[in-house]
Specification:
five-stranded mixed β-sheet, Beta-carbonic Anhydrase, Chain A, alpha/beta, about 190 residues, three-stranded antiparallel β-sheet, about 30% helix, 5 helices
Length: about 190
Amino acid sequence: MAFIPSVFDVVAANARFARSFDSGELPVQPARQLAVVTCMDARIDAFAVLGLHNGEAHIIRNAGGVITDDVIRSLCLSQRFLGTREIVLVHHTDCGLQRVDEHDFRDELERELGVKPWWSLEGFSDPYQDVRQSMQRVRMTPFVPHKEYISGFVYDVTDGHLHPVDPTAPPFDPAGGERVAPGGASNAGPPGR
């Protein structure tokens, strides 16, 4: 199938939207003092998934919903200048970053372009563990002052449910079916997320 640009449809849809637009008086500060970091995946309607409405939260999106320098920049501005106090991280099942090998991807770009990217792809295999890592990155940065309310979730793209992530759970060892505690000791039993 041939690619057909969507810009004309987007502009027409905006004209219909603008005819009944009634949000011009919303303040720039999010009403719930909430910032959400999630993936750019087209299957995630962040407002609908979280029961939010326009003007209630900042929605910061990138590939994977990972905490990068640019996300830290956005969270810093969100908190320091626009009054947010809570951060919710939402990764999801079946993420494209779970399918990409970072080393191969960087090598392919270098072969094609003659230079490797200066940024990390941030691929991962376990979205729960990646949420934990992202939560830790937010806690460690000095640029985000309000860290009392940081929550993490994995959104299941097959059923629409959010699954909370325990930030203290040890990583899951898929080979052994066990959680691996810090130092390498395993915890017998079914994996808790």
